[in-house]
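User: Can you fold this complex?
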Amino acid sequence: MAYTKPNTFSASTVLTAADVEGNTEELRAYLHEGVVVGDFESSTWIQTRHIQPPTFEPYSGTQHGVSGHIAGQSGGGLGVRLSFCTSYLTGNGKANAEPADWVAIPNTTFSLRMHRPYRGFFHWWMELEHGPDNVPYVAGQNYNTIDRLNYIAPYLGNTGFADQTAAQEGQNHQGPGGTWWNTASPVGARYPYTVAAGYGQRDGVMRIESNSVGTVTAGLCYYGQIDRVGIVNWGIALEAWYI
Amino acid sequence: MSRINRGRITDGQDITASDLNDRFDDYSQAGALNAFNVRDAAIDLPQVKADWFARDSFEATLGEFSLDHTSVNTVTASSSTPPAAGHIVQDFGGTASVLNFGLSGVTIGTGDVLRVYWDLSVNPTYNGTPWTAVGALGQYVFNNTTAGTTTVATSGNVWVLYPQWDVTSSALTNFVDVPGQSDFTTNYTGSLYGNTLAQCEATTVIPAWVQFFADASDGKVNASKLYDSRIGWRGVSGAWHYSGLATTVYGMRWIIRGLLHPDQNANVNYLAYDTVAGGQGSPNPQLEYTSGKASAIIMRLG
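Assistant: Here's the predicted assembly.
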């Protein structure tokens, strides 16, 4: 039942500490164990976000609490999970080849259940080796070897929403004029990737914000014109704050 | 139900019976436990209040996207002293790319932080060997394997990309360098201009070229095995944050400058204009760029 003070004060009477303390003690007891349903305001004001416990998903590296989501994954160190981008899945990147679309990169996606509208960032970085790709040039089917690119882009939803303006490219293994690779055994890149434009890190940040409640997917995809791009190491992280 | 928001009894104040009765009777009202009395006033966890942690966010495209770089913007290195004005990142039509915070701007309070991230697709180009010019900062002389000397590149020449903000009005006509960042035009000695490292807190550096050599012998260069290689198209990125005096920000834009090279003077490290290297080749060294993204979020620190 609702709180009722045990002692009522009257004018011109002695105010005793016991009376004051008695009322306070009764209030303490009420707030600890005496609250009943009728004491609450009838309209709903306690929402899921106020009472849900925090959760942690070890496989996806995702922590969810009342404030939102924080998540992180990486593919480096002892557990290196070498991955690839390849032009064979993107029609050599030519507009008239099929498929010529953005392709998701394995393991670089978060799918999160949003309980509230949110805003935040998707962070990513990758260590990449581009080519060398000396597959002969064929007009209309692929690019000149010196012009072959591989784009990495973040997406929100699915790869059809790849943020092309935020795409970061790398070039096919380059080298000093005409001497990029050995054509006799041992065949391969003649110069180190680190000084021939073929190696490097790419990274970026994508803003995410939505008033929708539901499952949201954020990840990385690529658009490749190079036969093989090695993803040596990578990391993705996401912060989504409820608003 | 009304809010239980009765002020506390203070020293020297008279207490009447009704004062005390009212204070306890506040809790006897039906429906007393509402959002304010229990959630906001009693618990008051910041994370259960709307827009508490992440008050607002913004994004903008820098430059303009062009698949396969069929169109590009081009910045030419400065060869003059003092250095030429920086290049404002823009689309192919010449319209500056601005991260716009709206007509009212956004106020960064004393307990807030403005976090800003950016990236841009770039391609440094050059002709000849700009680093071998007399007076270029980016040169180094090695003994070579034929008893002579060979001038090589330090490969330390860079382009820079950094943000400016407008904290004056939404007209966005008063952009200045953000705190912690300067414009590389301080004449610190002779004909050299640049920033101290402490003035480069928002600087993204982009390598201009790289040179390497093979078959070195006893620390000497084999001049016939000296190669320089293109940097190639790549994405570069940067980040900066502001937290301090309350400020209203209306917009941000980005500036490109080059060429620069590390330098040291009077025990202070600088990133300085290399206008000698910047004036070599035809055309002079250039930076091509297409598109990128700028993102910002305003958050509370606690």
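The helical segments of chain A are 17-34, 48-51. The mean pLDDT of chain A is 85.
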